Amino acid sequence: RGVLSRSICFEFNMPTSARWLTRCKSILSDYNITKVHDTDLLKIISLCNGDTRKIMNALKRLIVKSYRKVA
Description:
about 70 residues, 4 helices
């Protein structure tokens, strides 16, 4: 019973690709990465099927790759 009391499912709508695009560009901008084309970001969003963890991991890889080029 204790486990059940901690297991609550929340249902919510997935953000649109346009909303994800805005958010991804904002995150990349925070790391001074501005030369990623919208079409490339939309492809990442599509390949990740709107999965937040997958999108964030893909952005993380872009950020790390960008910083490695600079170093």
